[in-house]
Amino acid sequence: MATETASDSDGSADAPVTVDGESDLDELVASGGVVLADFYADWCGPCKALEPVVERLAETTAATVAKVDVDANQQLASTYGVRGVPTLVLFAGGEQVEQVVGAQPEPQLRELIGEYAE
């Protein structure tokens, strides 16, 4: 089951949700809201640089932000075609709508989420 922290009144988590397996991610995506999944690895420098951005997005946007460790979830990463880290996959309305590879600037990610957030 996904490890979740305190939630805002709109139901979005204040901090990234740790995903452990496909069923965890499926459960988050099935909620129908906007979900930003950060596929990362502990050994990845750009992933570490992106971490504070991902945390701010979790705190300040309506999106649920999920963290997926590709080393612990290799099958899940393969399912979504993750070949490099960091890879960010955006879901809206229960469907995958965007995928970006590499560390992205916060304004770009905020705009991407805003395109799909209600």
Helix count from the secondary structure assignment: 4
Distance between the termini: 26 Å
CA-based shape = globular
Mean of all residue-level pLDDT scores: 90
Q: What structural class do helix, strand and pairing data support?
A: alpha/beta
Kindly report the CATH topology.
Answer: Glutaredoxin
Assigned CATH superfamily: Glutaredoxin
So what's the CATH class? Alpha Beta
Beta strands, count: 5
Radius of gyration: 13 Å
Short key terms for the protein model shown above:
alpha/beta; 118 residues; 5 strands; disordered N terminus; 4 helices; globular; Glutaredoxin
What does this entry look like structurally?
The chain is an alpha/beta fold. The protein has a single domain (17-116), classed as 3-Layer(aba) Sandwich (Glutaredoxin). It contains 4 helices and 5 strands, in the order E-H-E-H-E-H-E-E-H. It has helices at 22-30, 45-60, 74-79, 106-116; strands at 17-19, 35-40, 64-69, 87-92, 95-101. It has a 5-stranded mixed sheet with strand order 1-3-2-4-5, sandwiched between helices. Strand 4 (87-92) and strand 5 form a beta hairpin. It is globular, with a radius of gyration of 13 Å. Mean pLDDT is 90; it is low at 1-11.
